[in-house]
Amino acid sequence: MSEHDDVLEEAAGWLEQGRKVALATVIETWGSAPRPVGSQLAIRDDATFVGSVSGGCIEGDVVTRALETLTSGQPEILEYGVSDAMAWEVGLACGGRIRVMVEPVTG
Length: 107
Hints:
This protein is an alpha+beta fold. It is built from 3 helices and 5 strands. It is globular and about 40 Å long. The protein has a 5-stranded antiparallel beta sheet with strand order 3-2-1-5-4, with helices on both faces.
């Protein structure tokens, strides 16, 4: 079983337990990126998460934004790049850029 399957399996289990879940997926990368396109992070409504979209450097911000999508119900596309002040704040100093789609999951 791949890491991708583990993330989706965990998210499905949370949904079965009646929890709200958001899924973050790397949809585009440029230059040096910590994780490839398709990498996923599942976020539960209590901020528990599994998986990775960046090897740890932006997960905190992605989790915060994912929790916001659970409230709003609206998907969001996040972009992080080494030239952005936010990238340095959240620790993405790998030299590339990544785009992550965050969306609430409905069971």
